[in-house]
Amino acid sequence: MPAQLLNGKIISDRILSEVKAKVATMDYQPGLAAILVGDNESSKLYLKLKEKACLETDIQFHTYFLDAICAEDKIIEVIDFLNKDPETTGILLQLPLPAKFDTHKLIQAINPQKDIDGFHPDSPFTSPTALGIVELLKETKTDLKNKNVIILSNSEEFAEPFKKLLPDSKVEYINPKLQTFPRSGMPLRGSDFGLRTLTADVLIVAIGQANCIKPDMIKKDAILIDVGISKVDGKTIGDIDPSCDKVASWRSPVPGGVGPLTVAMLLHNLVKNAK
Asked: What domains does the chain contain, in order, with CATH numbers?
């Protein structure tokens, strides 16, 4: 049987309906403020999706556009205003920032109680992307106790939440940038990781290298979660080659998998904060 596709849009619509119902019970309208620095087209697209979701759930949405040549102090000034603004329930600093800015410093400037993205070390919130992935895993109705969950990602911060979200699983993080590759510039292969990907009952991939995960790199009946995004010939492509469907049991597609759920869980965090 070919792998079943995990439709993130259907699940996200369900979560957004729950968010809207909770907003309807409040005596005020929660608000999300987004800060966009520079002119990154992908960031603009992501913000449009978040704005659309806010409109659908009766949440206020405001975007603060700043030029890439602005001073870092100007961004901190906007963050400080939003930290104090009683109508702002959550603050979103759209990443990535232009290279000249200190991302860590700017995240630290956000009131952790309003950091619904969960980036601030003192934020009480969990990453919406990680929460969305867990929702996808729940949809498979698979018992993950003692199962091997391998996360391929360029960022350890991305992998960190899964240790708490999947406490009964064996979670392992692999950073491809720290691996020794036999041929520089060649696509990632299972042998480059000592065949460790073949032991994954759940493989979560967030590398940004189009179709780099091939069928010979995965375990039979594995659950595949694709977080990677690349543009190839004008098309949005994930990290996991669709040909893996002949080996895997479940796969989240790109687009339409993790993306919609990241937006839904961001608003879930926002309403949780408002409550």
From this structure: 27-113 (3.40.50.10860), 128-258 (3.40.50.720)
